[in-house]
Design brief:
The complex is a heterodimer of chains A (about 280) and B (about 475). With about 280 residues, chain A is mainly beta. Helices cover about 10% and strands about 40% of the residues of chain A. Chain A is globular, with a radius of gyration of 26 Å. Chain B starts with a helix and ends with a strand. In chain B, the strands form 4 sheets. In chain B, strands 6, 7, 8, 9, 10, 11, 13, 14, 15, 16 and 19 form an 11-stranded mixed β-sheet that branches. Chain B has a 5-stranded antiparallel β-sheet with strand order 4-3-2-1-5, with no helix packed on it. A 4-stranded mixed β-sheet of chain B has the order 12-17-18-20. Chain B is globular, with a radius of gyration of 26 Å. Chain B is built from 12 helices and 24 strands. The chains are: A mainly beta (about 280), B alpha+beta (about 475). Chains A and B meet through strand 14 and strand 16 of A and helix 2, strand 7 and helix 5 of B. Strand 16 (about 250-260) of chain A pairs parallel with strand 7 (about 105-110) of chain B.
């Protein structure tokens, strides 16, 4: 085989180009906004980033909070956005890709709960619009705020607790009976409300029922089913019940002794814990 | 710690706080009293002084010394007759705590015990309210007629009524009281005989608490009635069942619908709103707290007074009851249903025309006073209605108004006699109000007229209808 120097030169040039392109590909990241510099900027972040979509949760590394980029190349942020939705709801989008597994403490009127930031680098929750102007989130010492624009409100009744007991709302709308799940009405002739759960065991939890303010007239009965689980029976629990939204806000702080368990499931139906919701004629 | 142990520990607090002696009480004007502390009941200090034992009201006094009471928790037990009344009292206690700016905590304990604690921001006295049927507990109940016993006293908190409730889908809007009683007793197989659809059975849903309450003894369930342990369960069963019928308190009606209760002539009133407040509805009730006549500690007395005051009315409405407010009745929504057939007699037409002329430009307040049968003595409910009107006048709500006390009679007897009788009764009520007001009448003018048997609210063909028609209403100029 005849060796020609120009052939070797051409091969080396091609190899160099390939290596250069490969190196660039390895080091490339999308352009991102700069991190806020001052504490004041950091406390009220206002960046607007698209939500991460189609991310494979299983292969995402736990990114250090000192880096400027997080999961999927997103800015560390964190950012907090509120998006208005129909039917008196809002969507809270917390994007914090550099704080995976950190605890985010949400505060929106009577809704105070904590969520662990997911492997996807954020927390996305639907919330009822309760006539409160600001949604706040704290992650360690960092504080974020997002304005909630006025709009149609719902009536919300809920209970908040912190303890190893699983509480669940039983909702009977407009005279209906419970179905087998115990959570919804049967028949759901005028089932208009929604039940939400926020928080996690050990972080504080909220069980919430919301219904449009103009759904009345009528009465929605609200009971609480308590599954004592690891707490065993008897158990003691501190909780707060509240009513918010398009009604004067109310709250009750209750210390509960759970000692009348009805069998091996150790569950109790608490009928006098929550006020029934009276809906007036719109 | 269990609820009972917790309560026991709390009960020990006062005695622990008072374990030592030696205090100085000081007040305005240089008042200084030194002595050995004996007790403090929330209102009075008892001391042993060099001049002997003394008892002195603690209002305005500062106590210094190791024995001064640091904490005194007074306990009050309430015994509501049913769930709705328990809800009312819970709301009132909670709202009273908020009114004081107090720290309010609620305990749900073993065996259904419930306690609400109110710790005011100032002063050593706090209040613990237990919901339990213990000896000495204040009863909370609906009262339809008679007065409490000699050693008891009632405080009125709200209005309520027993209403025949049906499903929203039931086309029937009113029944005679007799028909309701017969239907509840199981004498109607279906709704056709009651003006409703044929083939739809009358499914009586009977709340067991009604029999025990004495709130309406005229209802007796038939054998086929479905029995429920709570009013709310009965009301829900009625709401779910197109043929359902059940007598339940208005405060518990939830998703069911009340019927107008009429007499045989078709005249009657809906058991809601001002129809109940004025007592036009035949099954109206007062909601009262009944207690003995022992002296009350200041915070307990204050709680009771506040619960009967206008500040408590939002809580009363929240709990599903009717508040005690005095206001003008909207004639379009007064709940009154006229007789089915117009009475064409010229005598009646003349009486009504005279009434129309007398009441022209006036509008009715949502109260009425009625009389013991065959007498000119206001009945027990009327005494409260007078008190209610006096409170409204004293509050200034009716300042500058002219109040016209308008007497009405039943249709028994001659028209002239009835006119005189009704005017005399109007005068009796006016004078009773003036006597209560004493010097506080302010800028309110009073007048009394009688219109005889005009404007009946119920049928004169039945005894209870006559009783409702013998009344004094209070009217005032529209503007």
């Amino acid at each position: 085989m005849n060796f020609r120097p120009e052939t070797l030169t051409a091969a080396l040039v091609v190899l160099a180009i390939v290596l250069a392109l490969f190196g660039f590909a390895l080091s490339w990241r999308p352009a991102t906004p700069a991190m806020p510099n001052s504490p004041a900027e950091a406390s009220v972040a206002s960046l607007s980033l698209p939500l991460p979509r189609g991310i494979d949760d299983t292969n995402i590394p736990d990114v250090s909070t000192t880096e400027t980029l997080g999961v999927d190349g997103l800015s560390c942020g964190p950012t907090l956005e509120v998006t208005p939705l129909p039917s008196g709801l809002i969507r809270a989008s917390l994007v914090a890709p550099c704080r995976v597994n950190a605890i985010a403490r949400f505060s929106y009127g009577p809704l105070e709960f904590a969520e662990r930031i997911s492997e996807r680098g954020g927390v996305w929750r639907l919330l009822p619009r309760l006539g409160v102007e600001t949604l706040r989130v704290e992650i360690d010492t960092l504080r974020l705020e997002a304005a909630v624009e006025p709009g149609s409100e719902v009536l919300a009744v809920g209970l908040a607790w912190d303890g190893p007991v699983d509480l669940r709302l039983n909702v009977r709308e407009f005279g209906a009976e419970l179905d087998r799940s115990g959570q919804r009405a049967d028949p759901p002739a005028r089932a208009l409300g929604e039940v939400f759960h926020y928080g996690a065991p050990g972080l504080g939890q909220i069980e919430l029922y919301t219904v449009p303010a103009d759904a009345g007239p009528g009465l929605v009965r609200l009971d609480v089913a308590a599954d004592l689980g690891v707490a065993g029976c008897p158990a003691e629990l501190g909780l707060r019940t509240f009513m918010a939204g398009a009604v004067p806000p109310k709250k009750r702080d209750i210390f509960l002794t759970l000692d009348q368990c009805d069998g091996p499931e150790q569950s109790i139906l608490l009928k006098n814990l929550l006020d029934d919701l009276r809906l007036q004629r719109p | 710690m269990s609820f009972r142990l917790f309560s026991a520990a709390i009960a020990l607090l006062p005695s622990l706080a008072f374990a030592e002696t030696g205090v100085v009480l000081s007040g305005e004007g240089g008042l200084v009293i030194e002595g050995d502390f004996r007790s403090f009941d929330g209102e009075f200090y008892r001391l042993d002084t060099a001049n002997g034992p003394i008892t002195i009201a603690g209002t305005g006094l500062d106590c210094s010394g190791a024995a001064c009471p640091a904490d005194l928790r007074l306990e009050l037990a309430l015994d509501p007759a049913d769930g709705a009344l328990a809800r009312l009292m819970t709301y009132l206690v909670q709202s009273y705590g908020a009114h004081l700016g107090a720290d309010v905590r609620e305990f749900h304990g073993a065996e259904g015990l419930r306690r609400i604690e109110i710790d005011p921001p100032e002063g050593p006295v706090s209040l613990a309210v237990d919901f339990e049927a213990s000896a000495g507990a204040w009863q909370v109940l609906r009262r339809s007629g008679g007065q409490p016993g000699r050693d008891e006293i009632d405080t009125v908190l709200a209005f309520d009524a027993v209403v025949p409730a049906v499903s929203f889908d039931n086309p029937v809007t009113g029944l005679t009281l007799l028909a309701v009683e017969a239907a509840v007793a199981g004498e109607f197989p279906d709704w056709q005989g009651l003006g409703g659809a044929s083939g739809v059975p009358v499914d009586v849903q009977w709340p067991e608490p009604l029999a025990a309450s004495g709130a309406s003894s005229s209802f007796q369930p038939g054998e086929s009635a479905v029995r429920h342990t709570t009013y709310s369960d009965a009301a829900d069963a009625v709401a779910r069942n197109p043929g359902g019928l059940g007598p339940v308190p208005l405060s518990e009606i939830a998703n069911a619908v009340p019927l107008v209760v009429t007499g045989p002539c078709g005249r009657g009133t809906l058991g809601m709103g001002d129809g109940v407040r004025s007592g036009d509805y035949p099954l109206s009730h007062l909601v009262v707290v009944r207690r003995d006549r022992t002296r009350l500690m200041p915070i307990i007395r204050d709680f009771l007074d506040w619960s009967a005051s206008p500040e408590a009315w939002p809580s009363v409405l929240d709990a599903g009851f009717l508040d005690l407010s005095v206001s003008v009745v909207n004639p379009v929504r007064d709940g009154r249903q006229e007789a089915l057939g117009a009475d064409a007699s010229s005598d009646v037409a003349a009486i009504e025309a005279a009434a129309d002329a007398a009441l022209d430009g006036l509008t009715r307040l949502n109260l009425a006073m009625r009389f013991e049968s065959g007498t000119n003595s206001p009945d027990a409910a009327a005494l409260f209605q007078i008190e209610r009107l006096v409170t409204a006048i004293q509050s200034g709500d009716l300042a500058g108004k002219r109040l016209v006390f308008v007497g009405f009679s039943d249709a028994d007897g001659a028209q002239d006699t009835n006119a005189e009788l009704s005017e005399r009764r109007a005068g009796i009520i006016r004078d009773a109000v003036l006597a209560e007001l004493s010097q506080d009448a302010g800028a309110v003018a009073f007048e009394a007229i009688g219109l005889g048997e005009a404007r009946p609210v119920a049928c004169n063909g039945v005894t209870w209808g006559k009783g409702l028609n013998r009344r004094v209403e209070v009217w005032t100029p529209r503007r």
